[in-house]
Design brief:
The protein has 9 helices and no strands. It is an all-alpha fold. The protein has one domain. The N and C termini lie far apart (59 Å). 8% of the residues are buried.
């Protein structure tokens, strides 16, 4: 099995890239449906930004190609998207052209210190983005 995967890795990678298209279309339709309702999110009533509203607006803006709006709606998801796209580009370069620098870059990107830094950024983002809720909860 391992030999088969190694022998056909370029085709597997091409099929995996084709699977990204239906995933993008699914999230685009989902965000369209969620944003078309007239209901107001209950988090907005207390003056906070709920994680799903920011994520929904982020997906909608990103699927429309509006990168600045996507960054505004959810900076952490934008950072993760850039991280994911760089990962795909480095995997493509490593598999299709057999280059060594993408392999080294991937090892650094997925090292323990890098993942810890991403985790700390995520926690700080969640705390700082919803500072109004924290004030209300701890009064």
């Amino acid at each position: 099995m391992k030999y088969w995967i190694k022998k056909h890795r370029k085709w597997i990678l091409a099929v995996a890239h084709l699977l990204v298209i239906p995933i993008i279309l699914f999230f685009r339709c989902l965000s369209d449906n969620m944003l078309s309702t007239d209901r107001v999110c209950s988090w907005r009533r207390i003056g906070a930004l709920c994680p799903t509203c920011g994520g929904t607006h982020f997906v909608y803006a990103l699927s429309n190609g509006d990168l600045l709006a996507a960054l505004k709606y959810n900076a952490f998801l934008f950072l993760l998207t850039v991280f994911f796209v760089l990962t795909l580009v480095f995997i493509d370069l490593a598999v299709w052209f057999d280059l060594s620098f993408p392999k080294k870059a991937l090892k650094k990107m997925y090292s323990i210190p890098t993942l810890i830094i991403l985790g700390v950024i995520m926690i700080l983002f969640l705390i700082l983005r919803n500072w109004r809720i924290w004030i209300l909860l701890f009064q």
